[in-house]
Structure formats: C-alpha cells, structure tokens
Amino acid sequence: MDISTFPPLALALDALYNLVLGIGTVVQPFAGGAAPVLAIALLTVLVRLALVPVSVSQVRAEVTRRRLAPAIAALRAKYAKKPEALQKALLRLYTSEKVSPLAGILPTLAQAPVLSAIYALFVHPQLAGHANLLLTQTFLGIPFGSNLFATLGAAVTAGFPPVLVSVALLVVLAVVVELTRRANLRWAGSALNAEAGAAADHVPGAAAVASIARFLPYITVLFAAIAPFAAAVYLVTSATWTLGERAVLRRVIRAA
Hints:
Keywords: Cell membrane, Chaperone, Membrane, Protein transport, Transmembrane, Transmembrane helix, Transport. This is Membrane protein insertase YidC. Pfam families: 60KD_IMP. InterPro entries: YidC/ALB3/OXA1/COX18, YidC/Oxa/ALB_C, YidC_ALB_C. Its main location: membrane. By secondary structure, the protein is mainly α. It has one domain. Helices cover about 75% and strands about 5% of the residues. It contains ten helices and four strands. The protein has helices spanning about 5-30, 35-50, 50-80, 85-95, 105-120, 150-160, 160-200, 205-215, 220-225, 230-255; strands at about 125, 130, 140, 140-145. The strands form two sheets. The chain has a two-stranded antiparallel sheet. A two-stranded antiparallel ribbon has the order 3-4. A hairpin with a 2-residue loop joins β3 (about 140) and β4. About 25% of the residues are buried.
C-alpha cells in the first residue's frame, strides 16, 4: 500500500508540491534553468528559518554542557566504581540545569518529516490524483527524481557532465559534514571529553562505539547518493545552513 495516497498525507504532499512549483515560478525570470534547484534551496531555507528557535535551544544546551564539564568530571571521579550511581547523578545534574538529552538531535528530528516529504515528491509519478510535473524538471541534465547511481547508468549515453555535477554535490556535502564535525569537536571540547571518559570507564566497547561515531555523520552523504537529486540538494543546503547558523549562534549565545 502506498501511504502517499492516504488523504491527509496526499493533501500535505500536494501542498508542498504546489509550494515548490510556486517558488520555481517566482524565481524563473532571473534564475532561468536553475529555477527548479533554486526552489528546493529556498524551500530548505524557509524550513530552517522556521526551526531557528529549535537551533537556539540546542546551542544553549551546548553552552550549558560546556559550563558543566568540571562538574561532570567531578562526578566521574566520585562514582568511578558505581556506573549506575554515576548515571543517576548525571541525570540529576542535567535536570537541575534544565538540559534536555534530546536537545542535540531536535533539529534533525524536526527536519525528518520535511526531508521525507521531499523524498516522496520525487519518487511518485502521481500526487493527489494528478501528474507529478516535478519529475519532468532537470538541472544540468540531471532529472530531479534520479540519484547518483541512475546518473552513472545514464552516463554512457548522456555523457559525463551530469555525473560530475552529482559527484560534486556529494563532495560539497562531505566537506560541509567534515567541517561541521570538526567545529562541533572544537566547541564541545572538554564537555565531550568528560562525558566520553565516563562512558569509556564503565561501558564495555565504548571506545569502539566512539570510533564508529566519528563516521556516523557521513551517513548523510550515503543517503544523498541514493536519494533523489532534489533530496540531495535539500541535504546540502540544510547542512551548509547548519554550519553557518551554528557558528553564529554559538558566538552570540556565548557572549550573552
């Protein structure tokens, strides 16, 4: 069963469909052939602007964690041989400081429905009973509904420029992901070390998990490679926005 045909979801997808087409129509006079991809990028910006309060909450939680780093280290030393007591003490500390464990992933959770909807927009030939015209749109020869592997398959007849565009998009995303990862490490610094140290002492395999976690952000790049091109554009725009937004908010909130 195709859940996109479920009336509430169909109406939501149709509304998003018309929004993307509308933005594309507005920017067409000055964007030309880039209007479809610019429409996706502008839609992403609108979504991220709506999520600014969530991002502010996340950065405030990060600032609090940095401030609590010495207290976390003290609790780690105090409950070195009592992992359960340590976890309870950390929970009490976070509760007293009003730090939510979910603060770090709220922006991702909030964006998930939008990304899912954009993915659905470019895989269904029919939406709300009408043809999906978005699937007819292209950017530099790349259909919005295709992914990198489809572009590679078409390279034999269509030539390599579309492939290069897709690969370049993934490279940009990988660079932004790495810059974001490094910025997060520099910012969190002592707070991450304190919490990671506590975990490493008491959780079997924590060191291995930490090593794997280094590569988890790159799952976004893998998803962008298999997702429709339009969804990849959304991911690149959102990741770039996150990198800049986080730098600004950290500076402003820390100075407040």
